[in-house]
């Protein structure tokens, strides 16, 4: 692949500001109750780490991992759970933490799977939302930024496992952008 162009969409300062706001809102909404932050690997790990430090409540962490089926151009619309939770979610306040809500396939599947664990409450926080790409009708309870249909990398998000460590969220443009490739998590 030719070297891609990376244009900053949200700077590290803008991200930190928004993550602080999300943390404050969630702290207020949960009224001093403990939370389980349930991160979707791998993309959400940096967001979860920063978000957690802005929620001064008793927070535990757990992680899920999923893969989607399909070849490089077509997703079959199936998701498979690769790693389930380690802790019990029963009667707990659970927040699914995701990097991007795109077609909605992943979170629709995970929400259903996690509801089977009978949490007291189940909420969704996503750093980015691309509503124009939605195929499955699902909304997040908390959204960092709503964006148009760009392919973005950085702050945990990848292209072919690269760029997760960029501190800013960047729009990736290249001749072979592989827009339709099933992205890794
Ligand atoms: P879904 O289409 O809502 O199931 O989104 C699935 C996953 O695709 C997200 O959690 C991301 O990991 C990944 N994804 C979607 N859009 C992008 C993007 O622009 N950059 C990097 N990963 C993405
Ligand atoms: Mg993800």
What does this structure look like?
- It is a single chain.
- The protein has helices at residues 12-29, 45-52, 105-115; strands at 5-10, 35-41, 59-70, 75-83, 93-101, 121-129, 142-146, 152-153, 169-173.
- The protein has a six-stranded mixed sheet, sandwiched between helices. A three-stranded antiparallel sheet has the order 1-9-8.
- The protein has 185 residues and is an alpha/beta fold.
- It starts with a strand and ends in a 12-residue tail after the last strand.
- It is 20% helix and 35% strand.
- Helix 3 (105-115) links the parallel strand 5 and strand 6.
- Helix 1 (12-29) packs across helix 2 (45-52).
- Bound molecules: inosinic acid (IMP) and magnesium ion.
Keywords, please?
9 strands, alpha/beta, three-stranded antiparallel beta sheet, 20% helix, binds magnesium ion, binds inosinic acid, single chain, 185 residues
Largest sheet: 6 strands, mixed
**Low-pLDDT windows of residues:** none
Q: List cofactors, ions and other ligands.
A: inosinic acid, magnesium ion
Number of helices: 3
Strand % is 25-35%
Helix content: 10-25%
Strand segment tally: 9
State the secondary-structure class.
Answer: alpha/beta
Roughly how many Å is the radius of gyration? 16 Å
Spatial separation of the terminal alpha carbons: 20 Å
Q: How would you describe the oligomerization state of the chains in this entry?
A: single chain
Across the major sheet, the strand order is 4-3-2-5-6-7
* Mean pLDDT over the full residue set: 92
Shape: globular
Spell out the helices and strands N to C.
Answer: EHEHEEEHEEEE
């Amino acid at each position: 692949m030719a070297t891609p162009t990376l244009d900053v969409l949200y700077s590290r300062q803008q991200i930190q500001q928004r993550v602080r706001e999300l943390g404050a809102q969630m702290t207020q909404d949960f009224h001093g109750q403990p939370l389980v932050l349930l991160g979707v690997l791998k993309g959400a790990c940096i967001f979860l780490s920063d978000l957690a430090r802005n929620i001064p409540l008793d927070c535990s962490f757990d992680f899920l991992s999923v893969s989607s089926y399909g070849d490089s151009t077509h997703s079959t619309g199936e998701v498979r759970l690769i790693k389930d939770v380690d802790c019990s979610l029963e009667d707990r306040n659970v927040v699914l933490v995701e990097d991007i809500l795109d077609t909605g396939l992943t979170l629709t599947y995970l929400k259903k799977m996690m509801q089977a664990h009978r949490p007291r409450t189940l909420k969704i926080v996503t750093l980015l939302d691309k509503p124009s790409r939605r195929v499955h009708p699902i909304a997040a309870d908390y959204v960092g930024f709503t964006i148009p249909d760009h392919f973005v990398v950085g702050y945990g998000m990848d292209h072919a496992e690269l760029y997760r460590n960029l501190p800013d969220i960047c729009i990736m443009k290249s001749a072979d952008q592989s827009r339709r490739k099933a992205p890794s998590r």
